[in-house]
ABC-2 type transport system ATP-binding protein
Amino acid sequence: MMKNAVSCRDLVVVRGDREVLRGVGFDIRGGSVTGLLGPSGCGKTTLIRAIVGLQARVTGDISVLGLPAGAPKLRGRIGYVTQEPSVYGDLTVTENLRFFAAVLGVPSSDVERVVEAVDLTSHADARVDQLSGGQRSRASLAAALLGSPELLVLDEPTVGLDPVLRRDLWNLFHELADAGSTLLVSSHVMDEASRCDRLLLMRDGELLADDTPQDLLLSAGTNDIEQAFLTLIERKAGAR
Ligand SMILES: Nc1ncnc2c1ncn2[C@@H]1O[C@H](COP(=O)(O)OP(=O)(O)OP(=O)(O)O)[C@@H](O)[C@H]1O
């Protein structure tokens, strides 16, 4: 049994004058693909930023790969892809990745592997500002894969991608997990839920559910994840 890659307890985050995470707690098992789902503004990015150690005004405990979130020793062990492309427009895909490999101290031989993994080999020599939005986000993903980090945290990596590419990326996520990486993938597209080993369902700064997709559907008595989400909201409102 693999250990937990991430453990959060009593997590509270204040942004502006609002508590945008309100007492969140969960564990993410190593070597799994966990989906972080919930409507726009519910706190997914804030939670991700807290896990990777970039969020201010965090209280509670977050342990990441056995260390406190944000510990300097975690650098290089976590790959993080934001919603904004993190690659330079005036460099080619390969030039970008060689640059990031050098910064990370990863051998440049790794560049070819990650370009292939995100299916950008045919555009390896194209300037990033001449790529489509989806290709650009895959270039950012390739950068995060350099050095095979133990934890990959991906904020909405499939936005704007066509169904074939989305399926291929989800397959890649599972291959990476099978090889031992842990992935936390946020999405507000509920139909991506079935592709995850486990789901964290958020709403309004709180965790509504932490379960497998199958058990979530079973307990909500539906085969539609969106409906399950609504049922959970109604049950929670009824319990108040
Ligand atoms: N810089 C900020 N200052 C104050 N409040 C913020 C800031 N950034 C985000 N928020 C608020 O924090 C809450 C959570 O935002 P967050 O970006 O974590 O949501 P999200 O679930 O990732 O949304 P989306 O799916 O739209 O990206 C929102 O209500 C948002 O308005």
Q: What stands out?
A: Residues 15-16, 20, 38, 40-46, 188 surround adenosine-5'-triphosphate (CB under 6 Å). The first helix runs from residue 44 to 51. The helical segments are 44-51, 93-104, 110-117, 133-145, 163-178, 213-220, 225-239.
